[in-house]
Fold this sequence. Notes:
Blueprint: E1 3-7, E2 11-17, E3 32-38, H1 40-50, E4 54-62, H2 65-76, E5 80-87, E6 93-100, E7 103-109, H3 118-123, H4 125-130, E8 133-137, H5 142-155, E9 159-162, H6 171-174, E10 179-180, H7 184-191, H8 199-205, E11 210-213, E12 219-222, E13 228-230, H9 243-253, H10 259-273, H11 286-296
Parallel strand pairs: 1-4, 1-8, 2-6, 4-5, 8-9, 9-10
Antiparallel strand pairs: 2-3, 6-7, 11-12, 12-13
Helix pairs in contact: 1-9, 9-10
Amino acid sequence: MTRVVVVGSINMDLVTLAPRFAGPGETLLGERFLTLQGGKGANQAVAAARLGAEVTMVGAVGDDAFGDQLREGLQREGIALDHLHRIDDCGSGTASITVAGGENQIVIVPAANARLTPAHVEQASDAIARADAVLVQLESPLETVEATLRMGQRLGVPVILNPAPAQPLPLDWLKLARFVTPNQHELAILLGADPNEDFRELMRRTPCPVVLTRGADGAWYRDGGEPQSQGGFSVDVVDSTGAGDTFNAALAVFLKDDLGTAVRKACAAGALSVTQLGARDGMPTLAALDAFLERQS
């Protein structure tokens, strides 16, 4: 069984379905409201667990009702929570999400996620040392992201850096990642480059291997040599929330395969994830992913 450690955020998603996105200063009548468990870190942990991995979550929740619910949700997925920390006198992270026309807009309040420290990563060193892959994103403090990258290098464990929400990072940090997994917009921000520059040239300039997501068009990847492409899969899109998290989780789970196979499976898992509402409801099991890929051949 593949072992995956996820270092990252845990949020309660406050989701509003609307006929369209409201403009500045506009009040719009919504169609439905839901509370769903999310956070990029927790979503990636859940997706990896459903794909058959043994998953450990390194994260933080608040001492509120949301924190209790978020812990219980991860427990139900079979995720190890030895390194899930409850932060006193602090709320849990939230994400306010509006969904319209299959797209989404998101505002995140980090709360307890901002209190996840390098010391918490150090405490999880035994789990990280046993892992086949580690996932980390940018919804945690940057010093915690750096600590994760450096620990992965020190222990010889591949770290997949999902640079979202996008921001510039030191090139020395990128060199520590086994893969960085941006979309084109995120990669340009990461490198401080022109977002209109050809994404393949941006990939060539990145100082570590890149798996670049392209939404419905699939993905491009480069691990030395020239960038290569993997086409997308045609599905009926209901909600794109969580697609990138599912992609990253699948990449980590199947990283022991050759890279082309891992990217193909990640694209397929990401496609399946958008066919249902919410970040997690569409995340496929390994059996569902295998069946979907069998139908594509």
